[in-house]
Amino acid sequence: MKKALVTLILVIILAFQISPAYCKDLDIDAAAYILMDAKTGSILYEYNPDVRLRPASTTKIATALVALKNGKFSQVMTASQEAVSDIGVGGMNIGIIPGEQMTLEDLLHALLIVSANETANIIAENLFSDRKEFIEIMNKTAAAAGAKNSTFTNPCGIDEYEKDADHYTTARDLALIAKECLTFPAFREIIGQKKLDMLSPTNKHDKWNVLNNTNKLLGQSFNYGPDTGDDRNQFTITGMKTGSTMRAGANFVASSVNKDGLELISVILGVNNKPGRTVFDFTETLLRAGYENYSSQLIIDRNEIIRQVVVEDASDDGKLDLVTNGKVQAILPNDKNLWKIDNKVTIKEGLKAPIAKGTVLGNIVYTLDGINIGKVDIVSSRTIDQSFKAKSKAYVNKITSSPVFKYTAIALSVILFFFILRKTLRKISRRRNYKIKQRHKWQL
User: Fold this and answer.
1) Beta bridge partners of 151
2) Where does the record place the catalytic residues (predicted)?
């Protein structure tokens, strides 16, 4: 009886672990999701962000990052038989032939636009000595981007073979990898293309078929917030990557931007697509929530007084206001009651005159959930002059601490020493001569 009860409990636990979760607040039926500010990495929404799941072809974002960091677009790569064959049953491909030679630039376009599996393998085999070394670098590169819970075993995302049983990542890790990719203008240019129609002729292909981007939302704009009668409250999908397998479900990493320049990264994993409730629908829902409820907020403005201090050796009362030398803005909830910002103020101790206006005397670092969202210097609001007494003391210290003074003092000390030594020796000599004379006198 007890054994049966334990078995039932385990079955229930496992069921909850593998079944897509349902979020009533955002109405997103997915295993995990996250919405991240592309600039700072701050998290706007998340659900199961660190649960390890199968990424399918969103893996290719990590593959692209390795290529962008280690390769050159002009590098010519040769396709092996294994590279074009090891793409999984029904794996997406563009028909590259063994022995075909293509540039890394063309391979990356096919990789990111139409999700061609063989291009990932070709890049992996040519960028380093073999695919194994590429995977090692791939995992290290992902970890360096902040991905702490990912294990990649192949460059394209297939998960049907036993050798790829440990191929996992998380929503948070994918968002961080995508954030790193967006620092490369070439990556932005590629993911923003709706069609693959610019591949160069090769030794095996005179021309290529035109194929559509797997990102069905690319270039679409969506409204959010109050209807202003114009496109002010709109965001546009700028790119990124889809991924889908039987085991992974439907996955989608998306990037978007609104008219204010607020760029967000959304990651949705483990969706069982249904009419009107696809991974694309949930992506729209998540991004709309972000733009409706978050915006760039002013945390602190320029010239705000942080603290008043008393400066030593001042010509007046020495009271000095320390002010900010800039402003800090961050993506935060529109409802300020939801702000959970921490700040660390650092100010130099033992301040002494003179201090010029605008001198940096400290800083404030703002963090949100451990992520640095801004920093501003603290400067002096006015000039503080030294008192006459302090100036005189400083002048004397300057003179006495100068090398010339030190060498002069040493020289004078040596001269004085020899003068005293000479006087002493003369005195001793005179005494000795006097005693000799006296001795001679008594002898006579």
Assistant:
1) 168
2) 57, 60, 115
Q: Say how many domains are in the chain.
A: 3
Give catalytic residue positions. 57, 60, 115
- Do 90 and 166 belong to one domain? yes
Give the predicted TM-score (pTM) of the model.
Answer: 0.80
Q: Is 241 labelled a binding residue?
A: yes
Count other Cβ atoms within 10 Å, centred on residue 116: 27
Check if the beta carbon of residue 110 is closer than 8 Å to that of residue 141: no
Using CA atoms, how far apart are residues 381 and 200, in angstroms rounded to an integer?
61
Weakest mean pLDDT among 207-221, 224-238, 332-346? 224-238
Tens digits of residue pLDDT in 141-182: 999 999 999 999 999 999 999 999 999 999 999 999 999 999
* In the chain, % of residues over pLDDT 90: 78
Both 26 and 113 in one domain: the answer is yes
Residue 395: inside a domain: no
For position 84, which CATH number holds?
Answer: 3.40.710.10
Cα 57 to the chain's mean position, in Å?
Answer: 23
The boundaries of the domain holding residue 321 are 301-388
Is residue 426, in this structure, part of any structural domain at all?
yes
